[in-house]
Amino acid sequence: MAGQESYLATGFRAVDNNDDIGKLEACLTFIDELPSFKRYKEVSFEKLNVKPGDAAVDVGCGLGFDVAKLANIVCRGGLSVGVDISEKLLEAARRAFGNNEGVSFIRGDIHGLAIPRNSVDGIRVDRTLQHVQDPQKVISEMVRVLKPGGWLVCAEPDWSTFVIDTDDNETTGMIIQTWKSAFRNPNIGRQLLGRVRAEGLQYTWADGLMLLADGLRAADIVYDIYATAEKVRAANSEKSGTVDAWLNELQNREDHHGVTACVTIFLAGGQKPK
């Protein structure tokens, strides 16, 4: 059974408490190449409205993939900054992208960004608010550092929309509820637009896209299916046989025509008034 720090729903809260972050890194690396993830990220970059010469910030940057992508947009002459609380993830980000033009990384708590007020042209947060203690405080900090006229973009899943392709709805419901309840803010996706509007932004907008994992291996890497099943088994010993049967069904489905799992990711943003 996976330890709490390596369980994807909880492990990103305090990455550096885990001696081995390989599973977390593998998840982040894998999803960076998934077509459905690429689609929503493209929307988020477009809505950020940054251009060459601008300063852009990625909050909760992890391994720095999106920092590098933003640098490709704002350079030459621009700056792309990644902020994360995890020194281990930032070490990996610096190794991969630290020498790229215009790229820099800052270690710090995103509830209090070490960035001057009114200093950046665009700022985004992506699948990080689901893990934090105070999502509104993070969004407020993002607005604080934006220049008047700058744009904010948030992207977060809403785990009440999570589905797995199986016939056993009862056991699937237990798996989904166990996964969902492990997040600090499992319903943050649906709340994004209201939270953005609460900060006084103008021209606010929202969208929703599906994050699809095609195949049992992909679903497990992205949504930690097997670890969640083990958690259900541990909490309900009388359900052990039911969980085994559920996993067998998944494997049988995978062998015949494949398994899909998906969740809706909500995007919301707006412009800081000039």
Helix-strand blueprint:
Layout: H1 8-11, H2 22-31, H3 35-48, E1 55-59, H4 65-74, E2 79-84, H5 87-97, E3 103-107, E4 120-126, H6 135-145, E5 146-164, H7 169-181, H8 188-197, E6 202-214, H9 216-223, H10 225-235, H11 240-256, E7 260-271
Parallel strand pairs: 1-2, 1-4, 2-3, 4-5
Antiparallel strand pairs: 5-7, 6-7
Walkthrough of the structure:
The structure is a single chain. This protein is α/β, with parallel strands linked by helices and 274 residues long. The protein has a domain at 4-158 and 185-212 and 265-271: Vaccinia Virus protein VP39 (Rossmann fold, 3-Layer(aba) Sandwich). It contains eleven helices and seven strands. Strands 3-2-1-4-5-7-6 form a seven-stranded mixed sheet, with helices on both faces. Helix 7 (169-181) crosses helix 10 (225-235). The protein starts with 7 loop residues before the first helix and ends with a strand. The relative contact order is 0.15.
